[in-house]
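debug: dumping io for the single-chain case to check the tokenizer round-trip. Nothing else runs in this session.
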Amino acid sequence: MAQTRFAPDRGLTSRMVMTMFFIGLLYVVVVGALVVLLKGAWLIVLVISGALFIAQFWFSDRMAAFGMGAREVTPEEAPELHGAVDRLCALADMPKPKVCIADSDIPNAFATGRNQRNSLICATSGLLRRLEPEELEGVLAHELSHVAHRDVAVMTIASFLGVLAGIITRAALWSGVGRSNRDNNTAIAVLIVTAVSAVVYVISFLLTRLLSRYRELSADRAAALLTGRPSALAAALTKVTGQMARIPTRDLRRAEPFNAFYFAPAFSRENAVQLLSSHPTLEQRLDQLGRLSAQLGRP
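debug: decoded output
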């Protein structure tokens, strides 16, 4: 990756490599199952899934922006936001990403993009309205570290296999419906493909969740060290998490598909099953920032 002043994280790098290795292994298993079981239909599925993969990888920033209702803003439209991003990019020695605002009362932010020169950072209007300048810079530094470390691109690729598994499951079910010659071999093939796809989806889901939780801690650490103000990031995290309880449940459910990319998960309460959570607990994140504050000699 292009060198920046964000603190490197070998633990994050090793986890990204491990995640991509297992995702690639799973992909080979899926392709093998398609070749053996779907016979003539596997080529069509591969073409469609390949097209979806390319679209998701190359246009992930636009897809995320569209899904979140984000729009790119000029420095004249959002001078404070652009000013904060300009300062942080200069401090981190990295290219400036596209700057967007999502008209949503949910206080949150996210970043996406396959590399530093094709990236996007987005803050919601609810976040801009609630945070102080130092707190906002902490959140933006957190999101920029995702771009610098390229874990956003890895998450995009890794999450794709789960989507592909779902497509294959539907294709397998569809291929076994409406046939006049429903023999035992066809039924067995459909069941096997469906079972393999379900297992792949579960494994892919768990891998992305484990990586997602670590990368959030890594981004908190990198942002705190870059800005030198862990307490400001902790204050922003506490404020954002506390405000989630005031957001209507309907709005939180609409935002839930983007939780893995958010600064803080769009939940009104802690997830009961931590293994399924896309983020570490608030206590874990605050504890890390507290230790960093002590190391830097700040309250």
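debug: round-trip ok. The CA atoms of residues 112 and 152 lie 6 Å apart.
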